[in-house]
Amino acid sequence: MAHLEGEERGAVSKRVAIIGGGLAGIAAAVRLIEADCHPILIETSKRLGGRATSFVDPRTGEMLDNCQHVLMGCCTNLIDLYERIGVLEFIKWHRSVYWTSGRGEIDEMKAGWLPAPIHFTNSMRRMRLYSLGDKRQIARAMWRIIRLGSKGRFAWRDRTFGEFLRECRQSDSIIRRFWNAIIVSACNLDVDRVGAGFALQVFQEGFLANKWSYTMGLATVPLRELYEPVVQLIVKGGGEILLGESARGIAYEGSKVTGVVLADGLVEAADVISALPFDRLDKIISDTMRKADTRLQTLDRFKHSPILGVHLFFDQPVMDLPHLTVVDHDIQWLFNKGILEDGSQHLHIVISGADEWMDRSEEDITERIVFDIHQALPSSVGLEPVRVRIIKEKRATFAPLPGVDQFRPAAAPGTVGLGGGGIRNLFLAGDWCDVGWPATMEGAVRSGYAAAEAATGEGGIVENIPVAPLARLLGLR
Ligand SMILES: Cc1cc2nc3c(=O)[nH]c(=O)nc-3n(C[C@H](O)[C@H](O)[C@H](O)COP(=O)(O)OP(=O)(O)OC[C@H]3O[C@@H](n4cnc5c(N)ncnc54)[C@H](O)[C@@H]3O)c2cc1C
User: Fold this and answer.
1) Cβ of residue 285 lying under 6 Å from some atom of ligand 1
2) Dist. CA 13–CA 34, nearest whole Å
3) CATH number of the structural domain 304-398
4) 189 CA distance to ligand 1 centroid (A)?
5) Is the pTM of this model over 0.90?
6) What CA–CA distance (Å, rounded) separates 324 from 175?
7) Is 393 in the pocket of ligand 1 (CB under 6 A)?
8) What is the tens place of the pLDDT at every residue in 426-451?
9) Which ligand 1 atom sits closest to the C-alpha of 432?
């Protein structure tokens, strides 16, 4: 176990134990330091970052991200966190999104000079992937999405996005080749399973609200390096980090939590923030706690949705573009991870909503993926990867199914969401909590900020990206 402890702030600073050092726990810890509290961040792994981190591949010694993580310009809280910890400079912003259906034909989607929400008009007009009729259909549904506004989106939260699209008279082909291509990556479920509220939010806030909101951010360093300053920040700020330590339970006496139970004793705290995924939290709470807090009574209502990530290395460059969205194929996203010193190229493939891939063998997966890469990147034809590393994340995210919002708990008891009473010094964070976002890094940071605010009365979630005047005038707010 690594125990990193900062200078004592004195008896006045409140001790808050945070369980889980993913983005939700990190975000909570950073805001607690700013509120002059004494956070004690407990993380089972030897490193911070949770699902959005990197690992050293024991087969080769290379540091690899567990999966490519993409943020968007509308991720205002994640950007805020990166700023607070001083790593925003390691995010490279991409204004062009490249699309292909194979055969080397690439379309570029990019905001033009027109204002939001019509900023994609010119590049959509030029896209060869879609016929004129397809584009008319897309425009018709986009118009409906704008006019719905956020109130209308709320009304759709118990139905699927597929139902919404069919109501907007979208053909099966355009659903598969346009809407699903975006939504399966953004929400990690396909259009026929995802709650329409989540998908509508992606288009309203991620594509239509503002010309900047769709811009893709990619880390230029391994994800793990983004969290290195966090350790310093917490320790210098007077907090503690316990790495390689698992919470076995949360101590509960009377109507309050009193700390976190570790293998070698109790970490006492005035408040506890759980920044664990729902299934992990479920494992460490007692039945008495569950009975005392309605937020803890629906943890078994969540389901997971898997993601497949594949790192491939070719012994020569095969891809110039930074990334590529691939339609009409199994692979969904291709990322160019750069040329290594020996001249080989590292690519990363992501397949979201990947249930049917989880039981496939490595040989089968490699064969299918390499077939698609040959289709998408003509310069790779005839080449086989020299190394392949497949990562199956069965529990990648919670499944954003219709109606799931009703089970997502609030940070604090007795505020919004499910928490009508409960354990008053237990706060909940994690991408699955009631933050109004699908399972994303942004959702995790929002939840951490909300939990820190609930514990201290300070800070809180930062504002959404502003809605452009024309978009607002047309009904999007
Ligand atoms: C393959 C994949 C691809 C993704 N792609 C994207 C993307 O492109 N863009 C995006 O925005 N999001 C993406 N996500 C989602 C994103 O990674 C998560 O939403 C986010 O990282 C969740 O953060 P969290 O802090 O809520 O949870 P986690 O990251 O799961 O953190 C929870 C932490 O708790 C620790 N823990 C568990 N049990 C205990 C215990 N008993 N005691 C102490 N610690 C414990 C875990 O080790 C972990 O570090 C992806 C996720 C995956 C898996």
Assistant:
1) no
2) 11
3) 3.90.660.10
4) 17
5) yes
6) 19
7) yes
8) 999 999 999 999 999 999 999 999 99
9) 26
* 400-414 pLDDT, tens digit each: 999 999 999 999 997
Q: What pairs with residue 335 in β-bridges?
A: 323, 348
Residue entry with tokens 């030029």:
126
Q: Residue 136: left (phi > 0), alpha (psi -120 to 50), or beta?
A: alpha
Cα of 112 vs centre of ligand 1, distance in Å, is 35
Q: Is ligand 1 within 6 A of the CB of residue 67? A: yes
Domain ranges of the chain: 2-52+222-302+401-456, 115-214, 304-398
C-alpha of residue 440 to centroid of ligand 1, in Å: 9
CA of 120 to the centre of ligand 1 (A): 32
Q: Is the CB of 464 under 6 A from ligand 1?
A: no
Residues 6+ apart with CB under 8 A from 39: 16, 17, 18, 28, 29, 32, 33, 234, 239, 240
Atom of ligand 1 nearest to the CA of 430: 26
Strands 240-243 and 216-219: unpaired
Residues 6 or more apart whose CB falls under 8 angstroms from that of 194 comprise 160, 161, 183, 187, 400, 401, 402
For residue 364, give Cα distances in angstroms to 61, 275, 477.
25, 36, 46
- Return the CATH architecture of domain 2-52+222-302+401-456: 3-Layer(bba) Sandwich (3.50)
The answer to whether the CB of 69 is under 6 A from ligand 1 is yes
Closest ligand 1 atom, residue 284 Cα: 41
